[in-house]
Structures are given as structure tokens and as C-alpha cells.
Write a structure and sequence with these properties.
alpha/beta; 6-stranded parallel sheet; binds adenosine-5'-triphosphate; 49% helix; 135 residues
Length: 135
């Protein structure tokens, strides 16, 4: 599994998968971020994921599944997702920061779009309303 973008969301995915024994290739464009995580993830690299040659050199095309965990930089998120589609990754996941962002990602060919704040808000609402029945 390839995890691109090691903010809070991407780091959490990469570390949890690594803990479960999944082979993870983690990529971030910030050397400091990569350095800070290098002891915890076996395959980790500093690279600009909007550069298809960089992705090819890292062997991203050999992975079945990838997740784009870049959020606030829309351009980087969209470009990276489109390159993963171009590399014919079978199962692409991507984080979106808004419904519109999510729609663009889906149209590009991303298979699963996740809206962390929105999705977690819904889950909390379910949990809270479940509790309210108890009182
Ligand atoms: P979170 O909420 O998960 O902390 P965020 O939405 O604030 O994340 P961003 O800051 O946009 O996320 O990006 C997450 C990570 O993606 C950052 O560590 C950033 O360095 C990395 N990133 C941004 N652009 C690229 C790129 N072109 N290639 C690789 N990594 C990138």
C-alpha cells in the first residue's frame, strides 16, 4: 500500500498499516516529516508526488492500492490522484476537504473518497443519538 502525504491523516494510516504488518511505501515532499517517521515505517521517501517520474522511480506502479492523504493543497491532491489513475493503480483512495473536492477526485477515477471531518461528524452524531436513547 502506498500512502502519499504524511500529515495527521496519512501518518495515522501509514503507522496503523505498518503495525498490522502491511507493506507500506510512504511518501511526503517534506524531508523533515520523512526524517521524523523514518524509524517507524520501513519504506519511506521524500518525493514530490505530482512528479510521475519520481513515482515511477519509487515503484508506485507495482502496488495494488494507494491513498492520497494530501488535503489542503488541492492542486497537489488532484494532480497526484490523476497520476495514480495514469499508473493504473487498481484501488485508489483519497482524502477530500470538501464535497466539491471529493467530486473532482471521483471524476478523475479515484475509487474511494474519504471526507474525514464530515464522516467522523456523522459517526459521532450516531454515537451521541444512541446514547441519548439511554436517558
Ligand atoms: P492533516 O489534516 O492530515 O494533517 P492536511 O489536510 O493539513 O493534513 P496537508 O498539509 O495538505 O494536509 O498535506 C499533508 C501532507 O502532504 C504534508 O505533510 C505535506 O508535506 C504533504 N504533501 C503536500 N504536497 C505534496 C506533494 N506534492 N507530494 C508529496 N507530499 C505532499
Amino acid at each position: 500500500m502506498v500512502v502519499i502525504g504524511l500529515g495527521r491523516f496519512g501518518t495515522s494510516i501509514a503507522l496503523e498499516l505498518a503495525r498490522r504488518g502491511t507493506e507500506v511505501l510512504a511518501i511526503d515532499s517534506r524531508a523533515k516529516t520523512v526524517q521524523a517517521l523514518s524509524g517507524q515505517i520501513t519504506h519511506i521517501a521524500t518525493a514530490d508526488a505530482t512528479d510521475i517520474e519520481a513515482l515511477r522511480q519509487l515503484g508506485v506502479q507495482d502496488f495494488y492500492r494507494a491513498v492520497v492523504a494530501i488535503g489542503s493543497d488541492l492542486e497537489a491532491s488532484i494532480l497526484t490522484a490523476s497520476l495514480l489513475v495514469e499508473l493504473e493503480i487498481d484501488d485508489i483512495w483519497a482524502k477530500a476537504v470538501s464535497q466539491q473536492h471529493g467530486r473532482i477526485l471521483s471524476r478523475l477515477g479515484v475509487h474511494h473518497v474519504v471526507l474525514p471531518e464530515h464522516d467522523m461528524g456523522e459517526r459521532v452524531a450516531h454515537l451521541v443519538s444512541g446514547r441519548m436513547l439511554d436517558y
